């Protein structure tokens, strides 16, 4: 089962690189193979919502992290065999493929060495110490014991072969047993991903989240931070049935959007079974995750920003009405309309969300007045990111606190940039 999400959420969380800016995927990608990169991207695009699958994947990665396993196969070997297997042994007209004799010989030698290396890894390498890999090890062992592959194990890796032997092995690898070699490569790609992510977790000291097994929906995180920041500040937050909605306030540049991304990325990555940027995390498996942080106007249907927000809220309402358990984030809900409508809409939608105890919501807003009404709802918690004034200069702690703030420093920032003075001088000169 997959976690339901969408392109808007993936864009909000900046999972993939854009405009030459690396994405979260790039932080986790330390793979040695092109196939490993493709498997990792597939995992990023398809987070899980099945408890057993998440725990199984997480346990394998955690085991490799504890062992400090390094990738056990030579990347150049994999490059050679990938290129070799990508060429059919014969074209449809019966003619030989485009590989020359030297390339065929190199491909055959790579195939022989690779099978020996894989057998060593599953029989006496670190794979033996990873309990969660036992079924995949068993499957790979059975494949390697197949009668059709036994001639390969009669050869020593690196040994010189006759032209006749190379020709025979070429037919074996690229025709008769081609599917088995493809299956071996897929196993290696998966191992490549596991070790890549485990290595990254050790390097950055990321932690493995714990799946909540009790009743209700819980997200409990300590020290969560954005994985792309060089000097991040961690924050703690707990959400559950008693506090299913968080109303977040704070001045511009206080760090609201960064915090929302940090937490949402942690929840998303946790549903992949991957380690996250935090000190500790417990989470319930959700059916879906949707964020609205950088919502563009939908020019294709002539929709304004406000109408795009309305359609987004409607999408969430449909998911909730279907009984799904989802994690929802709205950054500056209804920013695309006037203050009065935004106030009223924020209050009503937040109240409606608060009645959905099976899901969890975070709504940030500049409309702090809405908090006065929302405080009457017991399942809504209030947090803010404070600003401290150093003379006329605002300073930001980026540290989450409980409560509501009415910090407004927009005009201070405008004056600090001397914008009014510049405009006044320009008028006089005109």
From TrEMBL:
SMART domains from the UniProt entry: MUTSac
Against InterPro entries, the record matches this protein to:
DNA_mismatch_repair_MutS_C, DNA_mismatch_repair_MutS_sf, MutS, P-loop_NTPase
Record-annotated DNA mismatch repair proteins mutS family domain positions: 243-421
For this chain, one GO molecular function annotation is: ATP-dependent DNA damage sensor activity
Q: Which domain of life is it from?
A: Bacteria
| GO biological process: one example | mismatch repair
Listed A to Z, the keywords are: ATP-binding, DNA-binding, Nucleotide-binding
Q: Does the keyword DNA-binding apply?
A: yes
- By its UniProt entry, which Pfam families does this protein fall under? MutS_V
- Annotated transmembrane regions: none
User: What name does this protein carry?
Assistant: DNA mismatch repair protein
- Recorded source organism is Paraflavitalea soli
């Amino acid at each position: 089962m997959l976690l339901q999400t969408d392109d808007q959420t993936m864009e909000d969380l900046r999972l993939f690189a854009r405009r030459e800016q690396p994405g979260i995927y790039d932080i986790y990608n330390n793979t040695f193979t092109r196939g490993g990169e493709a498997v990792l991207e597939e995992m990023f695009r398809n987070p899980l919502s099945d408890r057993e699958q998440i725990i199984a994947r997480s346990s394998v990665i955690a085991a490799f992290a504890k062992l400090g396993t390094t990738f056990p196969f030579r990347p150049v070997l994999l490059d050679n065999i990938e290129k070799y297997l990508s060429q059919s042994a014969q074209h449809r007209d019966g003619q030989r493929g485009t590989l020359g004799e030297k390339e065929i010989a190199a491909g055959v030698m790579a195939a022989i060495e690779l099978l020996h290396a894989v057998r060593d890894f599953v029989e006496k390498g670190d794979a033996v110490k990873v309990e969660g890999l036992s079924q995949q090890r068993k499957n790979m062992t059975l494949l390697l014991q197949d009668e059709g592959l036994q001639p390969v194990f009669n050869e020593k890796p690196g040994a010189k072969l006759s032209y006749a032997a190379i020709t025979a092995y070429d037919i074996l690898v690229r025709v008769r047993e081609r599917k088995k070699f493809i299956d071996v490569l897929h196993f290696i790609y998966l191992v490549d991903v596991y070790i890549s992510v485990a290595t990254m977790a050790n390097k950055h000291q990321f932690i493995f989240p714990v799946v909540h097994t009790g009743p209700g929906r819980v997200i409990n995180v300590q020290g969560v931070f954005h994985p792309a920041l060089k000097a991040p500040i961690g924050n703690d937050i707990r959400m559950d049935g008693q506090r299913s909605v968080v109303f977040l306030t704070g001045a511009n540049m206080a760090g609201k959007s960064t915090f929302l991304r940090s937490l949402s990325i942690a929840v998303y990555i946790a549903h992949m079974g991957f380690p996250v940027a935090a000190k500790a995390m417990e989470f319930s498996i959700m059916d879906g995750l949707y964020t609205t942080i950088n919502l563009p106007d939908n020019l294709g249907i002539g929709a304004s920003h406000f109408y795009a927000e309305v359609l987004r809220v409607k999408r969430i309402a449909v998911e909730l009405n279907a009984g799904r358990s989802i994690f929802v984030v709205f950054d500056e809900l209804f920013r695309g309309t006037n203050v009065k409508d935004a106030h009223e809409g924020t209050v009503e939608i937040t109240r409606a969300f608060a009645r959905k105890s099976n899901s969890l919501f975070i709504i940030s807003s500049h409309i702090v007045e809405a908090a006065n009404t929302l405080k009457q709802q017991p399942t809504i918690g209030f947090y803010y990111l404070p600003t401290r004034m150093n003379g006329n200069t605002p300073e930001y702690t980026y540290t989450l606190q409980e409560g509501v703030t009415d910090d407004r420093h927009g005009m201070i920032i405008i004056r600090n940039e001397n914008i009014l003075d510049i405009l006044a001088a320009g008028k006089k000169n005109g």
